[in-house]
Fold this protein.
Amino acid sequence: MHSKAIGAATGRAGTHHRRLAPLRGRDAELELIGEALGAAAAGRGSVLLLDGPAGIGKTRLLAEATVMAGRNGLRMATGRPPSAAAPMPFAPLLGALFDGRRPLFPATVLRDLSTRADQRYWLVQGIQALIEEAALDGPLLIALDDLQWADTETLVALRTVTAALEGLPITWMLAARAGEAAADVRAALPALLLDGGRRVRLGGLDDDAVGQVVGDVLGGAASASLIGLTARARGNPFLLVELLEGLREDGMVRRERGRVDLVADGLPGRLRDAMLQRLDRLAPETAQMLRVASILRRFSIEHVAALLAASPATLLAPVEDALRADLLTDTDGQLAFRHDLLREAVATTLPASMRRTLQRQAADVLTAAGGDPLTVAAHLVASADKGDREAAARLRAAAQTLAASDAGRAADLSRQALALTFEDDPAWGGLVAETVVLLHAVMRGDEADALAATALDRLLPAEQEADVRLSLATLSLRSADKRAADNRRALALTGVSAGLRARHGALLAQNVALAGRFAEARPLLARAVAAAQACGDVRARAAVRLTEVTLEEADGRYDGALARLQHDRGRPRAIPRMVEDDALQVAHARVLAATGRLGEGLKLSSVGMARARRDHRSWLLGCWSSWRSQLLLDAGALGDAGVEAEAALALADGAAGLGTDLDGALILGRIALHTGDAKRVRSSLRRARELHACGVPMVRRHAAWLLALVAFDDGRAGDALAWLADDELPYAAPFADVTHPPMVVRMALAAGQPAIAAAAVQRAESFARGNGGNALLAGVAANARGLCHGRLDDLLEAVALLRGAGRPLVLAAALEDAADALLAAGRREAALQAAGEASDTWEQTGAIADARRMRRRLRALGVHRRAAVQVRPKQGWASLTESELAVVRLVAEGHTNRQVAQRLVLSPHTVSTHLRHAFTKLKINSRVELARIALDPELAEASAA
């Protein structure tokens, strides 16, 4: 009865092979779990988060769920963080997939995953693909315990994976003590429930359940006096069982005729006293082993033997005694206390000085055994004093090991190492530099800046400080203005080498240009070119080239930008591959689109995304995804552009470090204006206002364009012009878009500001002159000129030029302008023909709001016109776009998201977004349902259409 009672309250999921005692007081929770497991067996997934304090029974419910899952034919995977003090990235997920008696996958697959580059993003993608493949073979239960100790990387990965695989038959059961979790973990937990998951808050057992536990532990019904005493446990199963066991062990209860009475007053003592009593009843060597082992959360016999300076063989009897006493569990060769409260209670029996000594000894033992650096670091933090160089060095090494996969934990470890180091220590300056970089990498900019302000400027050697500031100047999460400030501070130092100075000069010009301060960047570029040529530094020349292209784009000299982009083709590689193949290729796609070669730009984006996935470079994939959404919008593919923009936002959310959501949020707002999605317009406006409030000109210009478009759409032309006021580019198009001048002219004329209209025309014409033979730029200039000066010939010329420019949205707007001018000139038939073509063009792109506006205008002229493109219904197979159908067909055939992405040359996030939209339109929520209804002839008809 003893062991069964303890198991009923605190049994680990890893012990589900043992017979579990009845679970008391959790009927509602068990019913909910049964429904979730039944849904998985039927092909539908779900997420349940069990939340409650220590000892409340979360682990016991997970254990019961594994038993129920086995009865329902589900395969199971269980995992938990290996360490509370220093959690390992992705450990619960990896443990669930690869550990245990019957792992889902062999360890060889884990080794394959672990060697991938850019682990933070690509390891998550690998985990997602593996779980997806397993779920396609049959329903799963994935149970993860103790997530309050998980790292934020694990929680972000869980959010990404559960959202991407929501249509698969997977029951996710997650358990956490949210109230005890770190702030970042506590904030991340609710995101796991965004797609319909349920949070189950476990409270204390009610009086009936407490009475049942009393019967389980003591073998009878509780008397009134015993009921009053057990109420002090407040329904916590673990505390209740400990109390009852203490009463029984101390002889304070008596059972007669099925009734249990108290035979002594008072309590059996607080948990610490109870634990001392239990330790005293054990053999001395067992108690000593447990006290020492309480320093370690999970451990092997070898670890404890090393701490005790004993041979493992001498610990056989003590370990067996502890297992029989239900104080320890043995799971897959690892020992652990049955409950962490037990471990903590045992640890409190040690004097504080002894605990510190054992913590340091544990660090040494684990280091010698090749143990996890994070676990070692946790022991060092608990045992070290300021000035402990060895502890600081180990913490620093652990931070460096973790930096690539969990920069947040790495930053904390680096700060802890810094706290142990005196300022006159030779290692102090380097630690400051590394800590600042790590803090910035996890967006703790204010903390990093404060540290840099007090230490970095005045205490590091010049060369080292300049090198640190070079790293800061390349961090994309920081604003371009802040990056440029670091370049300037480094250039102000004396004693910096010529190569490092040249790099800072080149990056200064680049960052100033990327901030949108073009006039300021030009003289900086001239100096950077001279310095890069003088020292021959490859990295400096690479930064110079990107700055040159950026300024050519800003001035509208796209032919010149293309010439610079193609300068090194066919020649020996003179700049780093990353710059040439990544940043410059993204710029190349932009320039091709600006010069009317949109198809080439889209092809280049497809190649770039494929290369980013192949090389596992998440930041590049996010960059390409964002720009591809812009290119698709330019091509008039509004549906696909919206999906790609959503995918870019999801990618940024799922893999921090990809940059801001600037482009995706604003593109979705522009699409919403064309489609009449008022809700999306409002949400995009909120984000645009936030972005406009920042001090970086480039960001402000992008945000201002959406704000101006919305104001103009609302009939507030004056407000629209106010948003576009800019010292460097007055009332002109933002950087990297050549098609805006006609819209600026429309706004200016509506607001009665002809001078502003003339300025926009002048800019459009300068773009056209600087890129001879470009039909797109010439058409835009003719459109702006015709609007400004009321010249019909120019407007008709614009339509003729834009017909072959591959920009249907721009063409449709020009057709509207031409129709208005033709009508004013009395050429009604020609006007109606142009208006009808404009209406058809809007409809073909999916710009529903614009098409409706044109049909209303035509009706006002006495022309009733049917839609040229059949309006898609909102539900059913016919509502799916061609892109959604392509994804659905492959998924229905059993392909994974990754396989579909490879077949269709998309990102996995884009596939997930298409699939989510399709599920909504088809009113289904699982791939099983999709596979079933895919046999309907209606799908074949829709696919062939």
